[in-house]
Amino acid sequence: MTIVDLLERNAAEFGNDTALVEINPDQPETRRTWHEYDLVEPTHKTRHYRREITWAVFNEKSNRLANMLMQNGIGKGKKVAILLMNCIDWLPIYFGILKTGALAVPLNFRYSSDEIEYCVGLAEVDVLIFGSEFIGRVEAVADRLSKKCSLIYIGTGCPAFADDYNDLLSECSGTFPKCELCEDDDAAIYFSSGTTGFPKAILHKHRSLIHSCRVEQQHHGQTKDDCFLCIPPLYHTGAKMHWFGSLISGSKAVILKGTQSKNILQAVSDEQCTIVWLLVPWAQDILDALDRGELHLEDFKLKQWRLMHIGAQPVPQSLIKRWLEYFPNQQYDTNYGLSESIGPGAVHLGVENVHKVGAIGVAGYGWEVKIVSPDGKEVARGDVGELCLKGPGVMVCYYNDEKATADSLKDGWLFTGDMAMQDEDGFIYLVDRKKDVIITGGENLYPVQIENFLAGCDKIKDVAVIGLPDQRLGEIAAAIIEIKPDMTCTEQEINDFCLALPRYKRPRRIIFADVPRNPTGKIEKPKLRKIYGAEGLVDSQNKS
Questions:
Q1: pLDDT tens track for 425-444
Q2: For 169, how many CA atoms within 13 A lie in the half-sphere containing its CB?
Q3: What's the confidence (pLDDT) of residue 224?
Q4: pLDDT tens, 228-274?
Q5: What confidence score (pLDDT) does residue 461 get?
Q6: Ramachandran assignment for 317, one of left (phi > 0), alpha (psi -120 to 50 degrees), beta (any other)
Q7: Mean pLDDT, range 475-489, rounded to an integer
Q8: Residue 197: which of 383, 418, 374, 452 has the closest Cα?
């Protein structure tokens, strides 16, 4: 069985039931039909943007895309990239690609033009489907991209360098093209930046995807009556794999654009959501707004909200304690995973183990875990070592990167690069990171990218970027900058120089100081973390 079979089942059994809802509170609704007009002046002159589709329409949209792609030679072994903001078409497009037997290749919507071009080349993409938000970035490299792949635009005002999505699909059949698929077929390529800053392409089979469905349902017990609120970006394995719980149960999901606290609670209330996946900053924002009296729980219908879970970064114990004071009847879970392990659930706390908040949990459904020393031997409980994962969701390889694959995959075990320990009850706690990565608000930053950029400033002699603790985001990127002799530089000059970086990559703190290096020239980041209060950062976050 594959997830394509689950979609076909849902369309057959629950065809008229709502599958997806898209809400954008900041975008007014402009389309109106005759029956929406009142004879008297309406109370609300504008309504926010809301769209919904049934399982039958979801499936039909996927089939039309699949048939169009197959008519143009896209099938098994081919790759189709998705570069879209969250929208109601994202998942139907994803499934349309899978239905051809081709590989879906989701791209981070924060990628620059150069990163888009790099990832398209690395994954050997045959078709790129992109939205209106990316016209400028795709156009900047369109001449080179068009030599590698076809460009298809979804939206109004199709640019001259691309084909129009709706035109291509207008006469395509809405029936399943009947491509035979099995769990051993290649399914998707996801991207995860390496420690060098260059994205690595992660290859997964259909086995990984269907296992994610089973994991999610086993962990959170989704039924047909549930409704999942999805806020994080769908290109991310976390958001999509949590939505797989809706897919396997045939239940409704809501895609919310924006992270304002009031909008989150309003969506939960209006759509009667039962499960919400939040990132740490969003949960903190909701609690802070409640503490300040800006929001009042009695203004919303929240009794049906049964589960809040968090992943993507360490979760402070104090946060969950505060949350349960406001929501004492809610279940709570946290999930751990990597794109290399098809996202969340390889390790999870479990809704029955809230007393162990601070731990990432135990092995998830169908997963094995071990913690090993540098020589690969399992360590005793209480000792720190590298966390390793094994299960049906482990990647096949880093696509076109044999060395990176060999470094991370050994005898079926995925070496995560996260340092962990196991307590006497078998619960796993993250302690530190072996990999040089900063996780800020759930987004991975790779210091070498920022360091290489800052090295282009003619006033900078040397630079090191580390993560420093932050109450809301978990970590922030801090740049320790050594200025060239006989030169002066201000923090504002550095901030102005960094405007060329994507906002999420800009250092949030600038420190002018010497950058220590060892005899071989490597930056001594452990020393910097100790100097600036970031030693054992992950462990301290868990215990805060």
A1: 999 987 766 566 777 776 76
A2: 20
A3: 97
A4: 999 988 998 888 889 999 999 999 999 998 889 999 999 999 999 99
A5: 80
A6: alpha
A7: 87
A8: 452
Cβ-in-10-Å burial (0-12, 13-18, 19+) of 182 comes to exposed
Question: Encoding tokens for residue 141?
Answer: 């490299």
Residue 24 parent element (H or E): strand 18-28
Domains, in order of start, for the chain: 3-33+44-205 (3.40.50.12780), 309-433 (2.30.38.10), 438-543 (3.30.300.30)
Query: Residue 476 and residue 511: Cα distance in Å, rounded?
Result: 13
Higher pLDDT among residues 230 and 343, named by residue = 230
Task: Compute the mean pLDDT over every residue in the chain, rounded to the nearest whole number.
Answer: 87
> Do the Cβ atoms of 144 and 114 come closer than 8 Å?
no
Distances (CA, A) of 373 to 55, 384, 540: 48, 8, 22
Structure tokens at 395: 């990647």
The CA distance from 462 to 473, in Å, is 27
| Pair type for strands 275-278 and 227-230 | parallel
What's the whole-model pTM score? Answer: 0.81
CB atoms within 10 A of CB 403: 8
Q: Which residue has the tokens 């089973």?
A: 214
Evaluated on CA atoms 100, 103, 106, 111, the torsion sign reads negative
The secondary structure of the chain in percent helix, strand, coil, rounded to multiples of 5, reads: 35, 30, 40
**Cα distances (Å, whole numbers) of residue 63 to 17, 30, 167, 208, 506:** 18, 29, 15, 22, 41
